[in-house]
Design a protein that fits this description.
The protein is mostly helical and about 70 residues long. Helix content is about 60%, strand content about 0%. The chain is elongated and about 55 Å long.
Length: about 70
């Protein structure tokens, strides 16, 4: 039972340190391999003709990025 408690405390401390790092840096946790971007894949669904829901999400994302670019100070 003591090893379970020790492992739980170590895991809890690890998550606490990750939380503090996220709060300070304001940057999400990322993998070190680069993910799909390293493979040259722009999206998770790499099909030629995406579904309507995906097209709507992509259009909303493009509109959001355009709005952010217009309101950017620097």
């Amino acid at each position: 039972m003591s090893s379970f408690i020790a492992a739980f405390v170590v895991l809890l401390v690890f998550f606490l340190l990750m939380s503090v790092g996220y709060i300070i840096k304001k940057k999400a946790v990322e993998g070190s391999c680069g993910g799909l971007g390293a493979l040259g894949i722009e999206k998770a669904c790499d099909c030629d003709n995406p579904c309507d829901a995906r097209k709507a999400r992509m259009a909303a994302e493009e509109a959001r990025e355009k709005k952010l670019a217009q309101n950017r100070i620097l």
